[in-house]
Amino acid sequence: MEVPPEMLDALAGWFAQSLSPDAAARRAAEQSISSAAASPGFALALLGLAASPRHDLQARLAAAVHFKNLLRRRWPKPDADADDAADLLPASDCAIIKTHLLQLLLTAPPLIQAQLSEALAAAAACDFPARWESLLPSIVSSLGTAVNAGDVAATNSLLAAAASLFNRFRNAFDNNALRLDLKYCLEIFAAPLLEVFLFASRRLQAAATTANPLELRPVFECLRLCCEIFYSLNSIDLPEFFEDNMHQWMSEFRAFLTTSYPPPVEADGAPDALRAAVCDNLQLYMEKYEEEFRAYLKEFVEAVWGLLMAQTASPSRAQLAVTAIRFLTTVAESVHHALFGSPEAMKQICDSVVVPNLRLRDEDEELFEGNWVEYVRRDSEGSDADTLRRAACRLLRGLAANYREQVAALVSAQVQQMLAAYAADRANNWKEKDAAIYLVIALMQKPGATGGGTPVVDMESFFTSVIVPELQAPDWQSEPMLKATVLRFLKEFRDQIPKATALALLPSVVRFLTHESNVVHSYAATFIENLLIIKDAVPVPGVNAVTRSPRYVAADINPFAPQIIQNLSTALSFPDSYENPYLMKCLMRVLGIANITGQIVHEITARLVGILMEVCNNPKNPDFNHYLFEALAAVIGRTGEQDPALLPAFEASLFPVLQRILVEDISEFWPYAFQIFAQLVNLSRPPLSQNYMQLFGVLLSNATWDRPPCVPALVRLLRAFLRKIPNELNQEGRLPNILAISRSLLSRSSTEDSAFYMLNTLVENVGLDIMNPYISEIWSALFTRLQSRQAVKFVNSLVVFMSLVLVKYGSGVLVSSIDAIQPSLFSQILQRFWIPNLKLIKGALEVKLTAVASTKLLCESAVLLDAAAAQLWGKLLDSIVTLLSKTNQDLAQEQNDGADAVDIQKTSGYSVSFVRLQYAGKSEDDLLKEVNDPKQFLVTSLATLSAQSPGRFGPVIEQHVDPANKSALLQLCAAYNANIV
């Protein structure tokens, strides 16, 4: 694999500059890399730089990361759409990469090795094993060579590659193809894995008394990787090879759990990392293969319990404890719970495992003060790396599942003891109260949970005597970790706090928004934000159904909003909270619900714009940035609609920063900027200012649409312009330009949604007099695409578009314009695509639109009313009834509340992608507001039609409509007092 040295030198320079703190230098380097990515052999050059020992390690590492991400995006997938082929790596480059990647991985430094291992997994996910048959045999062959030579480092590199290869078996959907791949892997790799495992185990036993951790660390790592692969290969089913050799594996596992190594080795942490991997495997067998594992269960419970009792200075002991407790929890929740059922065992678990691990440790305090982001991630968000506290809580809940009264008695006594200790010496025993609150959080029943049983404490009394005093304490800056736990309690039980109580406590919570601890003010913000999205079930009058209604509305939050906004603004200036996503999310939510007026609107807009100006220098926190733009959208949307006079002030504040985003090519923010522009255009009144018309010119430039992540936002902006200035399309060749852009979008499956959205927008907003000269061009593009693209998604979009044309311009225009392309083409389209796909349409507005349009076809179109089209007429009616037979509940579930969508929406990584701003978008327009009920529209239209030709349509319905749908149609006729005669 030869790469020109000058190419490697140039790449190394760009990657070095891409790490520069200077924004201009960084963006120039990123632009150079982006330009080079389009050239042939770019992936090979990246791999060559990653493997080049003569270049700087940081540049090599950056190249390896870029290479890994490139393979994830552009490696050809077996089921890839032909439209996306231009973006994929050429087959020749892929072949070279597959030939060299494994060998380069073996010789790379550890940091680069990890990235290349993930790159290998990305390529293998598409090609292995069917299109990369040499990979696994190469790994096995190299493993044999490394083991025979006693080369543990090379063995570990190969095992790491294999581990990344097999990791997909852990979470993939179980199907026959996956099982065939697993069978292939087991046949080739299961026996060599056991050989390597036993080789490393023998090597460890021979050196067990060695006190030098550096010598033993690679051996422990080898065994840990074997355990990781063991887990992957056993994740789907218990393979015969592992069942036949279970005794060998379990004997070694038990030895690792029960053997003590010299203190320097234990302190290194490698033994505990291996034990944690063993505990993961034990839990897997306990969960999935309990019958086969039963014979080993008691000895492993004793071994794991012994580990939790042992004291050690190992830095990995916390993670081991988490996995060990998780295993015990699985046993406690199983039919083998009697192993813990005796009063002595239960008390020992509570006293020696649960309570000690619930108490705050020195490491927790250090993390709280030194890395608040990681503390919150572990403590509150349920991160991948479980904390000891969370694991201990789960063990307690696992025991309580079968022994709730016994556990409740033990915990209740423990809580009282801890609170008494705190009362005796508040200054020194605040950790006791903290642990007591955690115990209550662990065992209190949540709404909707099953089980019931003995309560741990009286919730109302505990809340009043333990929680409220901390919230209202004058010294609210003291004991920040305890205050954080109190706020965490509020968040966990927010649904159960009566509305009046929550509003009464809100001023106390709002104080904590300016607490000097990042964790505390983050938890306060999270509680307020979570409080505002609570919804209660409200019965729908006259219908046996419920709807979800917000518990807290603008009137509830308005009195507190100015102080909340002010405190959040203050907290955003604190050290390390400049880009705190929890604060910004809370601000977004308050601005999206409260009614704010006057000076506060200008102040918060200026504050948000100032923050945006700062993050433009280095957009590094995608969650914060998303909530920042949502907050801006919320201010513009809520206050701009209420007071249009604010629009000039918004434009004056926002145009400079939005223009900076475009001019400086801050690509991460382009999709957001276009959505904000769309919002401003929607609020404007024609004629639009010169600034907007210049933006309209930029929008119609083909180069603007060359960035796929921006396309959905650009379509929203175009939609806004078309609503305001539809007649401007006749000028300067704008409409042909837009149609050319739509054809380009239509040619790719990844942007075809946006193409249809653009065409729908044109039809909705532009009259037939303007569209008529171009309608044939649109049909030609759509039907040409249909010849190669008949996926359900595409055909459904086409049916929706045709329905829109019918509703807007009339059935005659729809039929004649399509038949102008080719005689009788409409009938063919109707029979092959419209009728079969109509019943597959989803979305409340789409269902209504297509049902009404199809009804109009039935009752108005000469093509369908022709006696020769009786079968087609009946089949179309059958599809309409099927479509409308979907329950109202199904359609309601497809609708989403904007605020909820913001809550569940997560941005990922740092790549440019389109993320919809919920507060910037209005709900879609209903072009059929005059039709309240499409079912009623159907039967009344049919009744009117049949009255004009009595006796004609009954036999057609009898012959061509499905019996179930005939029955449904009769029920609809009865419900709406209509008759088909």
UniProtKB/TrEMBL annotation:
Compartments it resides in: Cytoplasm; Nucleus
Organism domain of life: Eukaryota
Domain Importin N-terminal: 29-107
One matching Pfam family: Cse1
GO annotations of cellular component type: cytoplasm; nucleus
Biological process, per Gene Ontology: protein transport
Name the UniProt record assigns to this protein: Importin N-terminal domain-containing protein
Entry keyword set: Cytoplasm, Nucleus, Protein transport, Transport
Gene3D superfamilies (alphabetical): Leucine-rich Repeat Variant
Keyword check for Cell inner membrane: no
Natural source organism: Urochloa decumbens
InterPro entries: ARM-like, ARM-type_fold, Importin-beta_N, XPO2_C, XPO2_central
Family: Belongs to the XPO2/CSE1 family.
